Amino acid sequence: MHSSRTRTSSFRLAAIGLAAALGAGLLAGCSSDSEPDSAGGDGEKVELSIGVFGVFGYKQAGLYDEYEKLHPNVTIKENSTERNEDYYPALLNHLSANSGLQDIQAVEVANINELAGIQADKFVDLGKESGVKKDSYLPWKWDQAKTEDGKVIGVGTDIGPMGVCYRKDLFKKAGLPTEREEVGKLWAGDWSKYVDAGETYMKKAPKGTHFMDGAAGVYNGSVSSYAEKNYDKSGELIYKKSPAVKTSWDLAMRAAEAGMTAKLKQFDTEWDQAYANGDFASVVCPPWMLGYIKEKAGKKGANQWDVAAAPKPANWGGSFLTVPEAGPHKEEAVKLAAWLTAPEQQAKLFEKQASFPSAQAAYELPAVKNAKHEYFGGAPIGQIFADAAKDIPTAILGPKDQVIGETLANVGILQVEQQGKSPDDGWKAAVKAIDNAIDE
Amino acid sequence: MRRAARRSRRYQRDARWSPYAFISPFFLFFAAFGLFPLLYTGWASLHKVSLHNPTQMEWAGLHNYSRLFEDEFFWKALQNTLTIGIISTVPQLLMALGLAHLLNYRLRGSMFFRVAMLTPYATSVAAATLVFAMLYGRDYGMINWALGSVGIDNIDWENGTWSSQIAISTIVIWRWTGYNTLIYLAAMQAVPNDLYESAALDGATRWQQFIHVTIPSLRPTILFTVVVSTIGATQLFGEPLLFGGTQTGGASHQYQTLGLYLYEQGWFNFHLGRASAIAWTMFLILVVIGLVNWLIARRLQKSH
């Protein structure tokens, strides 16, 4: 559901069933090839299928059951592929063949721009549908699924406004403030202040610990706080000279070279182990990561972790629901997509699954407004992340954002951080790999 | 009379063509699921095809192939495949030979050992590799822990070129040694006992018997395992993918194999045409390896 989480965390896990997952994807594709069973007028029996990747949580939060109760003629069937890496290529295949599509298809934020660019005519324009209320979504989220001529191919599910999770005990030992307000103020306004705090930390760092998990975390946080990163407004690829990438890269390099990172790759087994052993004091964390931290850090970490505001508002992850034109029951599907992403339902999903709403109207609902996280010292996470969400810039997305971001992190930054190469060599290696990847 | 002749003609026709009908299922399946994909991949490799729209192909001639020649990532992957192939195949086959020789002695519970040999092979690549990836962990891996207890500093297995390739080859060795052992064992049991007896009469030691009787008798089997292992090594994919968890095969592609590079090009970068070209290049490499093996085999036969 969330970009980098599904990409990497489930990578190992998922790779276990690589073959199985691919097979399942094929099977799912086949099963939905069946003839549309009676188009969806009211009263007629309709079975709506919804294709997702990973855990979207609608089923777990009881939203399908609720919808079926409200609409007795509708039954909902969810087909989940574990990894977006398998899900997205299959979706592309089905789109180009105009068959095998589900009534609703979920799309990752990293892929939405590509689809809006090359396959826009394959999707229903949700912006024009009466059940969809534009005002309830955050404007920047709404705009991400918009094509050049103003068509909206998807409605937002969750988003990932960033905060910084930190360990109070380690901060205290290193002489940094521990109160979440003060911690937030420590680096408010500029990601470089977060790295400054790292320098302070390292001076009195508890033995064997580092300030942050890895340099890719601060790169990701910093670059996501800019509107323009890899592409400019006209769609031109500018990552090689864009100030956002340059500034963020330099910050990551500063962190790596100063040795304030634990040299970990996020969602690696080593990263999980480091949580359990308390090897690093802070990590850039969107709401969906809180559950992950709680699980990996375990009981030992309870009440040690807390969450503060990030230096600047930035987004990490989130998805969209789309309705393909070739789907069997478009009309009913639009209604369901609108309902699932309406503020009330998003709030319920947040309560049960910690997916942060992309519908701003949900922030006023008590389920979000008053949400506290016990494990994180009772932090008012609804408040913290809602504040961040409102100020997230409308990012200019491009078709190759995912490849660029991943290569910069997994090739460029890792070469410097883990293999001890110079920042210059790391950058050159990353650029070479990106050129190779996007070269036609 | 005439009727009888017709019947016999029909019978002849039946006897002549029925066998083909009986074996046709294999060939039909092979044509549908083996030959067609192979040819289609070849056709696709001559086009610019994107996973965004796989049915839309744009003629590119040999561009995908000529591009591979200048592609340093491809050469690196080829080189990695070669080194990992050698450091995993050679020790693996030598160990299998030795183990088979030991199992060939009369010993208690030989059945148990033979089944035990095969268990790694029966384990899924994924499960095995995940365990190994943890064993080779940098900070909390068991191997580094063991090395640490004898005073050797932590090795960052994944990030070194040699260390990562050795780590991957141990997974391959662990999985396939038992399998090859059983093949050798089967062949060894077919060696006539008289040969050993007469060798023993001539005063040959166990070791001399192994070198002068067992190995020569096993020559065709050894050649077979070499060919099969080479094919396996060229297609190496699951182990390196799971070892580091990414398709890049390490931060500086230090253990990216051809299989992994193909996967990266096709399923991450969506260049199906280029991925097809890599697939066909791999196929051609295997054909060449097969030819070389065939030549060696013929040479060996003649020298006997």
UniProtKB/TrEMBL annotation, chain A:
InterPro entries: Bact_solute-bd_prot1, SBP. The keyword NAD does not apply. The keyword Membrane does not apply. Keywords: Signal. Transmembrane segments: none annotated. Pfam families: SBP_bac_8. Residues 1-28 form the signal peptide. This is Carbohydrate ABC transporter substrate-binding protein. The lineage of its organism: Bacteria, Bacillati, Actinomycetota, Actinomycetes, Kitasatosporales.
UniProtKB/TrEMBL annotation, chain B:
One of its GO terms (biological process) is transmembrane transport. It is found in: Cell membrane. It comes from the Bacteria. SUPFAM superfamilies: MetI-like. The chain crosses the membrane at residues 20-40, 82-103, 115-136, 277-296. Residues 78-293 form the ABC transmembrane type-1 domain. CDD domains: TM_PBP2. GO terms for cellular component: plasma membrane. It is a multi-pass membrane protein. Keywords: Cell membrane, Membrane, Transmembrane, Transmembrane helix, Transport. Belongs to the binding-protein-dependent transport system permease family. This is Sugar ABC transporter permease. It comes from Streptomyces armeniacus.
